[in-house]
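Hello,

Our lab assistant flagged a job as stuck in the queue for most of the afternoon. It eventually completed. Since we weren't sure the result was trustworthy after the delay, we are filing this so someone can double-check. Below is the sequence as submitted and the structure that was eventually returned. Let us know if re-running is recommended.
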Amino acid sequence: MPIVEDPDPRPSEGSDPDGSDPFENLVLDEEFVKGAAVKEQAGRTRMLAARWKDQPPVDPGARRTVLDPTPARPRRRLRRAPAPVDAWGTPRRRPREWRAPLFVLLTVAVLLAALNIDGLRDWYRGAQDGLPTAAPSAAPSVAPETAPPGSAPPSLAAQTPTVDHPWAGSPAEGWPAGPDAIVLPAAQAVGAFDADQVAAQLKLVKDFLVAANLDPAVIAGGRPETALDLLDREQRDAAVRGLDHPDGTADATTLFSRFDPREAIQVGDVRVLGRMSVEGDGERGVLIHTDFSFVYALRPGPEAGRPLPSSKPSASARPAAPENSNAAKPVAWTVALAEEAPGSTRTARTVVRRADTYRFYDPARYRTNPKKINFEEFRSDVGNSACFVVDGFYHPQFEQFAAPPALPGRETPHGPAVDPYDRSTPVPAPEPGADPACGTVSRS
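-- returned structure --
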């Protein structure tokens, strides 16, 4: 193979005119070997160099080293991916992945609708009436009263009360609950009683109100033994007659809040709003005035909606009292009859307002037990209870069991509608010889 680049021509022997050997003084020692540099290129290098003189190499552009910078990827515009095809080019059908999530959403929606069937019914009725459905609005919180209010509580958006939300649409949603709602005024010396004695009398009255109106066993139709033990002997005998033999002259509901558990069952706590005050009565002792409204949330019992026996009371619908007592009979009201609506979770509310006056005689002038209660006067006003049914229980009416007026036990309400939450006016005193009024309530 020819050499492209020959090294320097070798000196030929005898070229020197003197005929001396040019390598005579050449010493091939270790230093010469280390210092020698190889100038001759490899055979392939010389071959490629000779070829590239006439045909320079062309860069194919497909190779890069690890030291070359990574080229930036071009941005893709949003576009639909090509439809998948099979081996013969026929488009394949995409699997319908949207079906499973859709079925899950539909199942959840059906379950939520089943759990809130009453809210769904209200929404449907509102849509039928062409009115926008109002969002549930909570009633404002109300502190215990210290003076008579100037007006009735504001109206709230109409809502259907249920077992889960028994106070929906009621002003009582913001009222205090339980015994703590009965706040005692500051005790001061009055007449023959010092401040400590007045404080004990106020506590005795509160204990009676709690035992008569807030005890769950009494509300469920039980016998109010604790409340009876706080009454003076004559007052206790009259109350026992109303419990054992209720009639037109003696009815336990004038003192005790009781419901027949076969018809109505309490739901949650009792909302209470009212006030208490003390007044001196000269030589006769001390008067304690109370005015409280008790609101009961109730669900239907196993026999709810059954016809009730009608029994009109006489002029005095209260337990017998001493002749000198000015006790008044209650004024009963019932809700207006509504069309039948199914739904066992629906609840009703009964509003009981009691305006009572308790007397504590001066033990130095009267033979009395200072640790027992005597009534000077008591009045009650009931919202949502059957009229003219005297059996020692309140009988609330549930909308899902509303009966037409023609059925026995359902007296036809009459007169203007009354707001049972309006505490701006006193409980009216009954007229002597007149029957208790039976009207309608504007809300419950």
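-- support follow-up --
The delay was a queue issue, not a problem with the job. The result is valid. The helical segments are 30-35, 43-54, 99-115, 117-129, 195-213, 216-219, 225-229, 233-244. The chain has a mean pLDDT of 78.
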